[in-house]
Amino acid sequence: MNDFPAKLQARAARKTAKRDEKKRQIAASALNALKELGYANTSLRDIAEKSDMSLGMLHYYFEDRSDLIIYCVSIYKREFVRAVTKALTAASGRDEVIEAFSEALVTSIIEDEMTHRLWYDIRNQAMFDVTFRPVVSEIETMLIGTVGAAFDKAGHKIPPEQVAIYYALVDGAFRYLMQDQFSATPRSRRALQAIFRDLLAQFF
Amino acid sequence: MNDFPAKLQARAARKTAKRDEKKRQIAASALNALKELGYANTSLRDIAEKSDMSLGMLHYYFEDRSDLIIYCVSIYKREFVRAVTKALTAASGRDEVIEAFSEALVTSIIEDEMTHRLWYDIRNQAMFDVTFRPVVSEIETMLIGTVGAAFDKAGHKIPPEQVAIYYALVDGAFRYLMQDQFSATPRSRRALQAIFRDLLAQFF
Amino acid sequence: MNDFPAKLQARAARKTAKRDEKKRQIAASALNALKELGYANTSLRDIAEKSDMSLGMLHYYFEDRSDLIIYCVSIYKREFVRAVTKALTAASGRDEVIEAFSEALVTSIIEDEMTHRLWYDIRNQAMFDVTFRPVVSEIETMLIGTVGAAFDKAGHKIPPEQVAIYYALVDGAFRYLMQDQFSATPRSRRALQAIFRDLLAQFF
Amino acid sequence: MNDFPAKLQARAARKTAKRDEKKRQIAASALNALKELGYANTSLRDIAEKSDMSLGMLHYYFEDRSDLIIYCVSIYKREFVRAVTKALTAASGRDEVIEAFSEALVTSIIEDEMTHRLWYDIRNQAMFDVTFRPVVSEIETMLIGTVGAAFDKAGHKIPPEQVAIYYALVDGAFRYLMQDQFSATPRSRRALQAIFRDLLAQFF
DNA sequence: AATGAATGAGCCTTCATTCAT
DNA sequence: GATGAATGAAGGCTCATTCAT
């Protein structure tokens, strides 16, 4: 009897899934333009041109510019956090955690500098524009969680409110080193690794 | 005999001084608008309106928008660095330095959150727009110098290249705590001080 | 089998054609404003207002102000050269050419004074602004060609490098007489015709 | 008894003379900027900067921008007409006039191309802006007079209204050749002279 | 579902002109 | 006499967004 509703629901779900897939695809393209030019300097036109999409489509799938950017950033987040988390799962014991964590951070600094640059841009923008705060907050919570997990795995117990501070410290170093990668004299992978290892060794 | 050149020179000097004074005055006004709205959201019109200046005047004194913003930021820098430096001069010995330094940082977080927010905005922008790099670089050098001075005064010897990392750590914490001051539940002065004291105690 | 590419190509062609048509239409409107006010005194806003177009549209179809103006002028060129050429095709023999050529010139002076006025404006601007040189050069080449054709048809052989000088002479007279048409005492069609007839008779 | 008025008058005259001298001096400086950039592209600021004059002074001596430009052009005119006239005075007889006239024209094309370029610019502007018409008209009358004088001296009688047409022809050639001097392949003095000599020989 | 033409508000900048000194 | 600080109108151009197709 109520097959119909079920069918309709299924169809709607399929539709939503398809739409989401498309959104993800668009966001991936948009991310490229944003990474390169930054929040303030990337227009929707830039995005459309750089990714062979029509201007109309951007608005068809996303409410407005902010909506698109937020979507882009939240995609990035999953990627990064997943990568770090994965790196940590294999590790056990203080030394292995230090090794795995610093390795993951360094790799990301070297390979994804531009994505991180954008993240810092959006995080900053969030302080002026409340629209961005929810995503930024969500991402930071995840990042803090990752740092907490590392401490746990390393066998170093610290009170929850302290974890946030340690995140802030690691992030401070991460950001500084990433910024320097854009300078005329970027650090070698080796040098970066040494810095993070020392840092984490001090923390744990 | 050659009074004339002297007089002309004096007049030119007075003129330059006056112009500089005016620039500073304009920059102070502009800073208010920028602090509130951020780099990406502040137009020259906003600045002109918020400070009862004509649009033309901004361009009369500053080459372009970037020039004005750079001037504003570099004024802020002197202020902040001077304040921290001053706070440190009076202190001697590890404990006094920790006390003075954390006190200075906390005060600045509470009283100048908006200026710092702008600073982080510009520093970020510099990663996308080379125009801002020189100022940002200059300011960060000064900030690193301040951190170095604190270590010195606290009697804690560390190699120069380490100072930059410690700056990055302190900055990471500072930024994080400042950001939270804009949230619904800002920290109390007491809480902030505790955090910085612990942090510095750990570092020194 | 490969209908698809063909279809896509056809669609793209139709689109380009439509866009070109629209550009021509806009240029025609813009030409009216330019003819009246001249290069230096016509803003894009003037053009938009005088022809009920939005400012944005002008920039949607043309790169910038120069691009629009160049397009306008190059449209004018085709018109004028075509008119003169057409007038000459029918003529054969010295007397008929003199008659047809002077008739075409006079008609154009009387009916299109304002377009010619603009042409002289742009041609002049080209001496200061290299942007305009290619169009101006292209048009002058066509005009010289027209003069050359007239000489040919009239059975008067002259070396190629001389043609340009004759063009310059005819143009000098044309410009002078056109300018006078804007004075308080414009010449009659009859008078203009007499002048050109005499002139051409002397040349051929 | 009425010495006073006389004295006052004399003083006023001296004052006017001094003011005129100053205006001439300013105009000479301004001419340099105008020659280079052209009417549409030269701001009063440009003029002030290029000639070490204050912006205020320009307005102190000249009603407005047009007034200054008109003054500049009228200075140029005296110079040019005087030069040509002088060249003609020494000549007598058809051949000598042809020689002297073409020599004067060629010299001016080569040495004063930029001034002529400006003249053509202003003459054109006059067609759109009535403000410039009086000066332009005045100058053209003088130029026509010069051409008339050449015909006279060459012993070639032509009716007055014809003189204007010959002026237009010579001017057409002059302008065309001058324009080419700005191209990549300017003509040699020798080539220019040949062209003008042939032309004048044909006219006289 | 997707497109891209069209809009108009807004941005940065330039400029002739005025005026207090 | 002369200066240059200050103004505000206007200019070219960009952009997010809307909407007819």
Comma- or semicolon-separated keywords:
homotetramer; 204 residues; mainly alpha; globular; DNA-binding
The total count of strands of chain A amounts to 0
Distance linking N and C termini of chain A:
62 Å
Shape of chain A: globular
Secondary-structure-based class of chain A equals mainly alpha
Helix content of chain A: over 70%
Poorly predicted tracts of residues of chain A: none
The whole-number mean of residue pLDDT values of chain A reads 90
What is the string of SSEs of chain A from the N terminus onward?
HHHHHHHHH
The major sheet of chain A is characterized as:
none
Q: Most extensive chain contact?
A: A-B, 29 and 29 residues
Helix count of chain A? 9
Rg of chain A to the nearest angstrom? 20 Å
Query: Strand content of the residues of chain A, in percent?
Result: under 5%
Q: What would you call the quaternary organization?
A: homotetramer
Quick recap:
The structure is a homotetramer of 204-residue chains. Chain A is an all-alpha fold.
Give an overview in words:
The structure is a homotetramer of 204-residue chains. Chain A has 204 residues and is an all-alpha fold. Chain A has helices at 3-37, 44-50, 55-61, 65-89, 94-111, 113-128, 133-153, 160-181, 189-203. The N and C termini of chain A lie far apart (62 Å). The model of chain A has no long low-confidence stretch (mean pLDDT 90). Chain B binds a DNA duplex (21 and 21 nucleotides) through residues 15, 19, 22, 43-45, 53-57, 59-61, 64-65.
